[in-house]
Design a protein that fits this description.
Elements: E1 6-13, E2 18-27, E3 40-47, E4 52-59
Antiparallel strand pairs: 1-2, 1-3, 3-4
Length: 61
């Protein structure tokens, strides 16, 4: 994704279930609270209205 502003972050678990949506007011960085998530693989989807990028991450308790 080109370095642009972030408008929304979505977190999905490995079954594709949407776990969290965070709307952001056009920032270049954002914090995401994952403290309640169990160990596993998650997909983080970042959008800015025009571009979308997905990254797979592993979370450990």
């Amino acid at each position: 994704m080109p370095e642009l502003t972030i408008s929304e972050i979505k977190v999905y678990d490995q079954t594709g279930t949407l776990k969290q949506i965070k709307k952001i007011a056009n920032a270049k960085e954002a914090d995401l609270n994952i403290s309640g998530y169990k160990t596993g693989i998650y997909i983080i989807e970042i959008t800015n209205g025009k571009y979308k990028e997905r990254q797979q991450v592993m979370i450990h308790e």
